[in-house]
Amino acid sequence: MSQECCHSPQLYEMLMHTEAILDTTSGVKFDEYLTNKTLRLATERRMEHLSNAAQNLPPDFQSAYPQIPWNKLEAQSSVLRHVDFQGKQEVLYRIATHHLHELHEALLAVRRN
Hints:
This protein has helices at about 10-25, 30-35, 35-55, 60-65, 70-80, 85-110. It has about 110 residues and is an all-alpha fold.
């Protein structure tokens, strides 16, 4: 994925991180995820970057694409800081394995526009 194809560096970063999370968590069961420290830490860090990139997009850009859950993305970093270990891992795993594909597809649609 080349950076030139995207509307902004933040959008490129969001696509890069969603793709990496999807690739590394595909087919991984929660027990496996929980015992794989490297995967857990990488997923958490990429989620932080994803949230930060969303926060750095201008409001007019965000309002042009209401199908993206900008508020949830921006709030994600706060959740990651304030949830206990087990709760955090459950939230991250659920996002990575159940919700991120939809976000990634929506981001790809934005890039195509």
